[in-house]
Amino acid sequence: MTASEYEGAEFMAEYQAPSVPVRSLDLTRKMYRYVTSGDSNTGWTRPAFREDKSGYDLAYRLGYDDNETVARTFDRSYLVTQEYDLEYYTAEYFTPAQQRERFVYGEADIKRLRQDSTAQKIYASGGFDGWYVPDES
To answer: Could you give the angle at the alpha carbon of 26 between the alpha carbons of 50 and 136, nearest 5°?
Structure first.
């Protein structure tokens, strides 16, 4: 876990409204490993950062394949996007099939998110960006 990821996760956890979920790609597992130093017996959990099994992951292409705005994809939420997410799936040790399987969103989706009036950037540092998406009105 990089310093930027830790600081960004700390900001999002500290300043979020507790009832609003934080959706991210891989932050939960990385934050858990960082805090516990790999010791799974500590029992630490961060309720705001959940894994995709509980429905708090980012949608494929941030939902732009199916919707014009991110607010039509997500209910009221915080989103976390990272440079790491854009680069990880392209690692040379992944086969092309594995790269396709690991792809969730790319630069074109981030560009669209930046131009999306339903998303408000609330944090940016070192390739870690936090966004707020209000209920669609």
So the answer is: 60
- Strand order of the β-sheet with 128-133 is 22-23, 77-82, 128-133, 120-125
Residue 69 burial by Cβ neighbours in a 10 Å radius (0-12, 13-18, 19+) = middle
* Cα–Cα dist 26/8, whole Å: 13
7: which 2 tokens? Answer: 């600081």
The whole-angstrom distance between residue 64's C-alpha and the CA centroid of its chain comes to: 15
3-class DSSP assignment, residue 96: helix
Contact at 8 Å (CB) between 99 and 34? Answer: no
**pTM, two decimal places:** 0.79
Give domain limits for the chain. 3-40+67-133
Q: What is the pLDDT along the chain (137 residues), one digit of tens a residue?
A: 788 888 988 898 888 888 888 888 876 555 555 555 555 554 544 444 444 444 568 899 999 999 999 999 998 999 999 998 899 889 999 899 999 988 999 999 999 999 999 999 999 999 999 999 998 76
**How far apart are alpha carbons 57 and 59 in whole angstroms?**
6
The length of the chain in residues reads 137
